[in-house]
Design goal:
The chain is α+β, with helices and mostly antiparallel strands. It has eight helices and eleven strands. β5 and β6 form a beta hairpin.
Amino acid sequence: MKNVQSVPYNEPINIRDFKIFKGLSDEEAEMVTRSVVSTMHKRGSTIYQEGSRINGTFLIIDGILKIFKTGFDGKEQIIRFAKHGDLIGFRSVISDELACSTAKAIQDTALCYLPGEILGSLLKSNPTFSMALMKLTCKELGESNKFLTDIAQKTVRERLAEVLLLLMDTFELDQDHTLRITLTREELANMVGTATESVIRLLSEFKNDKMIELNGRKIKLLNIPKLIKIGNVYV
């Protein structure tokens, strides 16, 4: 935590409000509550860096983080976004390996830091928690496998449609059918796995085809069935 630029977050937190911790006993919940350190991070703050040593896991209280890997050319490949209730960094703690990705705040974000020794204690003493963490690991592995398949088999146009639908599923739409998350064109390109210029061109095509509406960084989804068809997404 030494490299994390942050300020204390003093709002009260009930650990049992978070799905991953619902199976804890009263004693375990109290132990976690005593052990966590709550902090607030400004947009643009790096929580941990790829290749660094993570000594604990992070629970997201509020805000959004992007999780990404950096290529040899310095280009980001966004793996996923983490939001309220998500747990990140735990795999590196369990495997005792260096972080395989970077976590960076794209909104002001509140986090709880749980030391690795507490995480290990819960894994040893609570089968329900261990199973929940195993399911989470399997889910992330499945998403990674799907991403690799999409990169290999889908066109950029198909991947962009799928990414827009993924953002809709992850962050939902407001009453106006606009995505509740705003990303730069570069961040969208880093999700799709292509050049920023290609995403700009395809967004313009999607707009002309009346599938989306653009207002700066805001994207309104006008024709979700057509996006599903283009993205070859099974729903």
